[in-house]
Amino acid sequence: MSAEAWSPKSWTSKPIKQDVIYDDAKGVQSALEKIEKLPPLVTTQEIANLKKSLKNVALGKAFVLQGGDCAELFDYCNQDMIEAKVKLLLQMSLVLIWGANMPVVRIARIAGQFAKPRSSPMETINGIEMPSFRGDNINGFDATPESRRPDPSRLVDAYFHSAATLNYLRASLSSGLADLHSPLDWGLGHVIEPSIKENYERIVTRVTDALRFMQTVGIDTDRGVETVDVYTSHEGLLLEYETSLTRLLKDPSPPQHTFAPTPASTTNPSPSKSHYATSSHFLWIGDRTRQLNGAHVEFFRGIANPIGIKIGPSMAPEELITLLDTINPSKEIGKVTLISRYGASKIASHLPAHIAAVQSSGHLPVWQCDPMHGNTHSTPSGVKTRDFKNILSELKQALEIHRAAGSFLGGMHLELTGEAVTECVGGAGGLTEEGLGERYTTFCDPRLNEKQALELAFLVAGFYREMEGSEGVNAI
Ligand code: PEP
Ligand code: CO
User: Fold this and answer.
1) Ligand 1 — pocket residues by CB below 6 A?
2) Distance 59 CA to ligand 1 centre (A)
3) What distance in Å separates the CA atoms of residue 307 and residue 338, rounded to the nearest whole number?
4) Which atom of ligand 1 lies closest to the CA of 113?
């Protein structure tokens, strides 16, 4: 398959899963034609920077934290919700930097995480059969057949909501939202757990003390700590949309050392070009659309972005290697992030064989643990939830299994929100199944709230410190 010619539309000749059937073909065409003329949402330089950082993760020199909503809604495109999510990722990354003692790459599931794969295209609500909700860029959530009809104008709305979210994200980062001189300004929102608050404040004190010391001894702390990068990501599910934002662009040139004389042979190198998906920096293939001969794999094998592949218990080790060979034939280090999501009770029987296969293949991907998607269950009253202890258990097992195999667990992939939701049970706050109804606002899978997410970051940081033989969380 990989020997065949690739084009941004070559996927259209392959079998596709999770396809959307529109009854307004003209509307789809004009929406896509409009998006094709709009500017890229991200630049190749940003994509290249992320690629470089992920290469460091693959090599065991950095950690990647990826998180955000399961299903982003257009309504989440507002100042408070964007800030709350980014602040939470910043707080968690500070804790992880301290714990793993290495730089943290931040990737948000934001500014485009709209489309959702569903187990069934149709559902029956109050006796009426209608299409399932597929995400805000496809149809509406309201339980009526009219609202559930796939509406092509939502494709254009998705572009503009992504653009507005990204604009505010970039503007707030460049205006000092992530300034390490004042991490306490990131606030702890509704985190009231004294132990978490105390531990967090101790880390912040250490950071500010270190910065003050550097300033005192004359080291310039204004450069490098006043902002950080937060990259965007989403599942690359809706291929028509992704194709309309896939552009053949000049590859960014590597940084030049101005002091070195330029060799004559490189004075005018003809710039190479690649196809970039410009809807976000990082795209991933979901567990339900990663068939070797399917449309999604075909699309993904041609784009220059760093990409993720979700892998669950149904993935055979040989299939994983064929998939890596197809998507990344040159074995570029860190180009692929393998996002494992088996479930706490299954990881021990699947991850070791996947690691062994990858190790003997010569591929060096980023290994990331998604402890959310294999740990979803329904309460007796039918509410979809996840138990904090299963999430933590899968993460801990992932760390131990990688370590035992001489492999590096380079990151975690979480569904979380900066809002005070009640969707996952457990954690220090002791949320019970009975409490789930209080603020259950997800439109798809249950997310960790701010308190639970920060607690998880502390526990994972503690695992890293224990493994390195340093003091635990309480010794900050
Ligand atoms: C998701 O990340 O929201 C998702 C649907 O994941 P998976 O493909 O692992 O089921
Ligand atoms: Co999800």
Assistant:
1) 70, 117, 235, 286-288, 310, 341, 373, 445
2) 26
3) 9
4) 3
Q: Tokens 């220059």 belong to which residue?
A: 304
Provide the residue type at 298 as one letter: E
Q: How many CB atoms lie within 10 A of CB 224?
A: 9
Q: Is the pLDDT of residue 263 over 60?
A: no
Contact call for residues 358 and 406 (beta carbons, < 8 A) = no
Q: Are 227 and 174 in contact (CB under 8 A)?
A: yes
Q: Is 51 helix (H, G, I), strand (E, B) or coil?
A: helix
- Compute the C-alpha angle 232/228/46, nearest 5°: 45
In a 10 Å sphere around its CB, with 0-12 CB exposed, 13-18 middle and 19+ buried, how is residue 247 labelled? middle
Q: How many residues does the chain have?
A: 476
| DSSP state letter for 83 | H
Cα(156) to centroid of ligand 1, in Å? 24
The residue to mutate among 341, 368, 394, 444, having the most atoms of ligand 1 within 8 angstroms of its beta carbon, is 341
Residue 70 has pLDDT above 60, yes or no: yes
Output the residue whose Cα is nearest ligand 1's atom 1.
70
Q: pLDDT grade, residue 203 (50/70/90)?
A: confident
Q: Which atom of ligand 1 lies nearest, measured to the CA of 288?
A: 8
User: Tell me, what's the pLDDT at 476?
Assistant: 33
What pLDDT score does 358 carry? 98
Answer whether residue 188 shows pLDDT above 90.
Answer: no
Which tens digits make up the pLDDT trace of 1-19? Answer: 446 899 999 999 999 999 9
What backbone phi and psi angles, to 5 degrees, belong to 219?
-90, 130
Q: Which residues contact 205 (CB under 8 A, 6 or more apart)?
A: none
Beta strands in 194-330 (DSSP E): 230-235, 246-250, 273-277, 282-285, 307-311
Ligand 2 centroid to Cα of residue 445, in Å, is 5
Which ligand ends up closest to the CA of 18?
1
Q: Which of 231, 238, 306 is nearest to 276 (CA)?
A: 306
Pocket test for ligand 1, best of 18, 66, 70, 113 (most atoms within 8 A of CB): 70
What distance in angstroms lies between residue 386's CA and the mean position of ligand 1's atoms?
A: 14
Beta-bridge partner residues of 122: 131
Report the pLDDT averaged over residues 156-178.
94
In three-state secondary structure terms, 164 is helix
Distance 372 CA to ligand 1 centre (A): 9
Give every CB contact of residue 220 below 8 A, 6+ residues apart in sequence: none
Probe target for ligand 1 pocket from 288, 342, 368, with the most ligand atoms within 8 Å of CB: 288
The tokens describing 123, both together, are: 């559902």
